[in-house]
Amino acid sequence: MIGIELDDLDLAGGVVTLTKTKSGKARTIRLVDPVVQAMMIYLRHSESFRQPGVKALWLNRRGQALTPNGLSQMMERRGKQAGVKVSPHAFRRRQADLRMGKGGSEPGLMTNNGWTTTAMIRRYSKDVITANTMAEVDRLFGDT
């Protein structure tokens, strides 16, 4: 997500195309409405300090592209202010948990996150998968 550029966004359509991925394969993902609204607010705010020629979506305090290390530092600072420990992967785990907890499909989660094996689902959604499995057993066999 750190490599998103302004041209990658289609907020009217509610999508972002991730062109700079680990696998090198671009993918388009849906943005839910609260995320679209938050991004619109962020973009209006960031216009005031964006440096000329900078196409990156996420900016540092100087209006330049935020780096992965800069993201980690910012999250650590904000986490300390909030009294919680956060990391970029904590957000990835949370969105995977939310999606699976709401009955999302494994193929949908894999596509959205650019995963090629189900091992990543087990890694990121272990607790929700266990809860869903228990609920499924109750639903299927609870009356027996």
From TrEMBL:
Gene3D superfamilies in the record: Intergrase catalytic core
Pfam families: Phage_integrase (PF00589)
GO process annotations (BP): DNA integration; DNA recombination
Residues covered by the Tyr recombinase domain: 1-139
Listed GO MF terms: DNA binding
Keywords from the named record: DNA recombination
The protein, known as: Unannotated protein
The organism of origin for this protein: freshwater metagenome
